[in-house]
Specification:
This protein is mostly beta strands. Helices cover 0% and strands 44% of the residues. It has no helices and eleven strands.
Length: 142
Amino acid sequence: MWSTQTGAPIGIPLEGHEGTVTCVSFNPSGQQAVTCSHDKTLKLWDTKTFTQIGDPFIGHSDWVWRVSFSSDGLRIVSGGRDKTVRLWSAQTHQQIGDPFQGHIGEVLWVYESSDGMFVVSIDQDNGNNYLGSSQQSDRLEI
C-alpha cells in the first residue's frame, strides 16, 4: 500500500495469495481491504496490521478478476474467469446464495449498487452487461 500524502510505501506487502493478485477493494471505513487472485480465492486484510483476517473466500473454479465491497461494507461481490459472479458475507467469508450465472465470457468487472439491491457485471464477450438482483439470482441483460 502507498501513502496518498507522501507517495511512499506504508506497512508491509500483503502476502498470502499463491497467484497473481488481480484486484483490491477497500471497505468504506478503509480499515479492511479485500484482494482476489489467480489462485481462485479472495482474501480479507486488516489495513492497520497488514494481516489476513480469517480464512480465504473459496468458491470460484478459476482465476478471480474483480472484487468490490458493498457500500455498507457487509458484502463483497466477485467475478472471474469461471464466468460467474458471486456475493459473499464480509463477516463470515461464506458465499451468499448461488452464483450469478449467464455470462458467455470471463467476468471482468463487478459492482454492487449503493442501496445493495443490484449487482452489475461486465464480461469479456463483447462487453455483455448483466444487472442482477443481490436479493435473488434474477438477471437482466442490459
